[in-house]
Design a protein that fits this description.
The protein has helices at about 1-10, 25-30, 35-40, 45-50, 60-85, 95-100, 105-135, 145-160, 160-190, 200-215, 225-235, 245, 255-285, 295-305, 310-325, 325-340, 360-375, 380-385, 390-410, 415-440, 445-470, 500-515, 530-540; strands spanning about 490-495, 515-520. By secondary structure, the protein is an all-alpha fold. A two-stranded parallel ribbon has the order 1-2. Helix 6 (about 95-100) crosses helix 19 (about 390-410), helix 8 (about 145-160) runs antiparallel to helix 17 and helix 9 (about 160-190) packs across helix 14 (about 295-305). The longest helix has about 35 residues, at about 105-135. The two termini are about 40 Å apart.
Length: about 550
């Protein structure tokens, strides 16, 4: 087993290599942006799918809805640029909310984001495997197994460490970006030359009539609700934007400056790709119905024909959908480590593994996502209603926390910064309400139930640690007495001391009675507590 482990994830790295195990800006863009960038493969498609339920006339709202989402994207990005600089060690929703709004809001934000990260893995993998089984229908009965295999492969890649996963997973992201931009440029050129005429209205209506025959005609009279559903479906394009603010510490120095640069590039790429696909879909009149060819595939046929570029587009889409899960693998373990350091999750989640990544967090995320894929049978349709509600709740808490942060700090220009974050909080809060309202009966109620349950688990774990600490606590100002060493005999002895409390003191006392030479070793896990431990040791022993 040890040899197999080394073959899969590599030999252990020394802690001193941690500074080298960080992302360059190019690697960070690929790893931390894969979730957000991959959403262009289905964000416009979901908008068109919902609008198509009301007939061809409703499709004129595609571009206005896309414009609203792009505007929301910019507002959220500007807000998170401020968060990155204010929290250079990682300014995710949990930390910002906890420090500025209090423990309970912080836990709600942490629970919301945890659920969304698990759903990111499940939805991305399910969508990627759906693309695969569309090409090879014979694999459809093995869909769940294929999903679990895909989760396992991404898990192993991340267990190998930051550098290894970055080098392995960067290529598909950049390939997808290049192919999509080629599609958009090719579409613009063809449209300018008059070689890309829109499909006829009769053909468009025929496709939409097919959607009505599948049971969607009842939505035709529900104008506002239909528009809200289309908007909320398109908001999937914003999932993953917070990933960079969560992982500032994973960048090379100067961390916050590099993180802000990557965030700007990511949002620019995302806005252009998402907006461009919506414009191209509107120009060509391409529509999408459930279980039919994907919108991106249809656009590829219009622009590339049926040649090699169409195949490359489909393969790169499949790969980036599978690798979009990697954003969650970059951030969930860090979030879990923050919660564990504060005592709300088992402390094993705060420790780095052999390859200087939070291995236990990676394993936990894989297990939870695998469980969801089994329960929901790897179905994107059944998983997608649960998606994005949690992330907008965490957006709102994070931006509200930043308003309080600026109010407390009152540094130069604090009022303008507070207004920016305040605007972000109001808008993301309203969008979160729209998402919850439009998706509640489709499955979002599960998220509403899961968040308080998860918060209750956090509080129970914290209560357990507090209870154990009370039992082990010793008076901090008392000089502890150790027995004399044996006059003869004994053996050299080493005692590992994580904390100096009643349990470890009794171990030291016993070791002193049998040791010819006694050495106590405390291992600093990088949590910044070594100096406090050294001071306590000098004071009490």
């Amino acid at each position: 087993m040890s040899r197999l482990r080394r073959a899969l994830i590599g030999v252990p790295l020394p802690t001193s290599a941690h500074a080298e195990e960080r992302f360059t800006n190019a690697e960070a863009l690929a790893i931390l942006s894969s979730d957000a960038l991959s959403s262009v493969a289905y964000a416009t498609q979901e908008i068109v799918l919902v609008l198509g339920m009301a007939g061809a006339a409703a499709l004129r709202f595609t571009l206005p809805i896309t414009g609203l989402i792009v505007g929301l994207m910019v507002i959220v990005a500007i807000s998170y640029r401020q968060t990155i600089k204010a929290y250079p060690q990682g300014g995710g929703s949990y930390r910002v909310s906890q420090q500025n709004l209090g423990q309970l809001p912080g836990l709600v934000a942490g629970a919301s984001l945890s659920i969304d990260y698990v759903l990111t893995v499940a939805v991305s993998v399910a969508a990627g495997i759906a693309a695969l089984t569309s090409y090879f229908p014979g694999l459809e009965p093995q869909r769940v197994l294929l999903c679990l295999v895909a989760v396992g492969l991404v898990m192993v890649a991340n267990l190998r460490g930051v550098r290894s996963s970055a080098q392995l997973l960067s290529v598909p992201t950049y390939l997808f970006m290049v192919v999509v931009f080629t599609l958009l440029i090719g579409g613009a050129v063809k449209a300018g030359l008059g070689q890309l005429p829109p499909i006829g209205l009769a053909a468009q209506n025929a496709v939409l009539d097919g959607a009505h025959r599948h049971g969607h005609h009842e939505l035709m009279a529900m104008g506002p609700v239909l528009l809200m559903r289309a908007f909320s479906s398109g908001c999937a394009a914003l999932t993953g934007i917070e990933a960079i603010s969560d992982s500032v510490a994973a960048f090379r120095p100067v961390e916050w400056r590099n993180a802000r640069r990557v965030l700007v590039v990511m949002v620019l790429m995302l806005a252009v790709m998402f907006g461009g696909i919506s414009v191209l879909a509107h120009q060509t009149g391409v529509v999408y119905v459930e279980n039919g060819p994907t919108l991106l595939y249809q656009l590829g046929q219009e622009v590339f024909g049926s040649g090699l570029l169409l195949l490359v587009l489909q393969l790169s889409t499949l790969l980036i959908l599978l690798l979009a899960a990697n954003t969650a693998y970059a951030d969930f373990p860090r979030l879990a480590a923050f919660l564990a350091q504060d005592g709300f999750l088992p402390r094993q989640l705060a420790s780095m593994g052999d390859r200087l990544v939070f291995s236990n967090g990676i394993l936990a995320l894989s297990g939870l996502a695998g469980l969801l894929l089994v329960v929901f049978q790897g179905s994107v349709t059944r998983l997608i209603p649960l998606y994005a509600v949690g992330v907008f709740l965490s957006f709102t808490f994070s931006q509200s926390g930043m308003v309080v942060h600026w109010w407390k700090e009152r540094s130069r220009g604090w009022l303008n910064k507070a207004l920016i974050n305040g605007l972000g909080a109001v808008i993301t809060g309203l969008v979160g309400c729209v998402l919850l309202y439009s998706k509640f009966t489709q499955g979002a109620w599960l998220v509403v139930v899961a968040i308080p349950l998860l918060v209750a688990v956090y509080l129970k774990i914290k209560s357990h640690y507090i209870d154990v600490a009370k039992r082990l606590r010793m008076a901090g100002d008392v000089k502890l007495k150790l027995p004399a060493q044996p006059s003869q005999g004994g053996a050299p002895t080493v005692v590992l001391v994580g904390q100096l409390h009643r349990g470890s003191f009794e171990a030291i006392r016993f070791a002193r009675t049998i040791a010819s030479e006694l050495v106590a070793v405390h291992v600093d896990l990088g949590l910044g507590r070594a100096d406090a431990f050294r001071e306590q040791w000098a004071r009490q022993l």
